[in-house]
Amino acid sequence: MATIRFTGNIQRHVSAPDLEVAGTTVGEALDRYFDRYPGVRGYVLDNQGAVRHHMLVLVNGLSIRDRRRLSDPVESDAELFVFQALSGG
User: Fold this and answer.
1) Taking the CB of residue 88, how many other CB atoms lie within 10 A of it?
2) Alpha-carbon distances of 67 from 24, 26, 58, 61, 81, rounded to whole Å
3) Domains identified in the chain and CATH numbers
4) Strand partners, 58
């Protein structure tokens, strides 16, 4: 099963513990996570189901390509890492 992890800065806003989930795509894996922790969905995804602009999702250290349909593949031993993108100057 894939493991989903969230950074501490996200967890300051919403409880998002690490969790092992099933799924063959990013969307399926995140859906399983949100089934268990529904309050996290609105923080990570917009109202169309796409990853919010200020959020990043990595699979095994690589940024996902499909931020709208979340169709990037997820292997059973993958690690998904979700964090808030930082900007500034």
Assistant:
1) 3
2) 16, 9, 11, 15, 14
3) 2-84 (3.10.20.30)
4) 63, 81
- Give the containing element (helix H, strand E) for 55: strand 55-59
Contact 33, 12 (CB under 8 A): no
Q: How far is CA 33 from CA 68, 86, 88, 89, in A?
A: 17, 24, 30, 34
Which tens digits make up the pLDDT trace of 15-69? 999 999 999 999 999 999 999 999 999 999 999 999 999 999 999 999 999 999 9
Q: What is the distance in angstroms between the CA of the first residue and the CA of the last residue of the chain? A: 39
